[in-house]
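User: Fold this one for me? It's Translocon-associated protein subunit alpha.
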Amino acid sequence: MGIRVFSFLFAILLVASPLVHVVRCEADANEVVSEDAGELGIVGDEAQDFSDSSLTSAVGVDTICVFPKNPKRSVPAGEETELLVGIQNEGESSLNVLAIRASLHFSFDHSMLVQNLTVQEFYNATVPLSSQATFPYIFAVSKYLQPGLFDLVGTIIYEIDQHPYQSVFYNGTIEVVEAGGFLSVESIFLVTIGVALLGFLGLWAYGQIQNLSKKTKRAPKVEVGTKTTEANMDEWLQGTAYAQSLSSKSKKKK
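Assistant: Here's what I get for Translocon-associated protein subunit alpha.
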């Protein structure tokens, strides 16, 4: 019951304020300052190896995770995404947070690793007994990753009395989306193909209209002389009754 109450109240505190008992997160800096533990640095390339999967969680340590600016958990490929990791120490002694790491897996086969994400290492991040703290974690999936649903596994590594532990603060699905909204590479390609097809269709229709207009033009009239026509008619009517009547009529006139 106590764990459920902690998860609910601590999630509200994480969203409402960057200050939770111990750690204050500076949004515009690369450092987090702890009230009791001094500086808490974030490093990149020189981070230690925290990939030991044999580590277990310590008794009395609870963790939660919040996507403060991204409640739908949509992660643009190639762009940075921030989440906050909350930790509560109800153990027997204070703990030191060492690092936060995460990995991406296929949702249909969790055993298949897609990408190891950034390891953020912290310095002098002490969480005293019966205290709570929040830590920022910023990561970016590969810009070449195809959009879709993936499983994100996030782990926070800490030590108690110089003994290392780790707790999974998030093990769930996120949606990787295309960066840049509508103006993506695939969208531009499809629009270009559509414009080209419309252009070819217009040219074909114009050619058909031109051919149809040429066929409907009237042919020029040819005048035929009356004399030639009469001569042809006389030859065609020779030997007929009509020709004989005409011959008799011409004799009577004479």
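One thing worth pointing out: Confidence is low (pLDDT under 50) at residues 1-5, 11-47.
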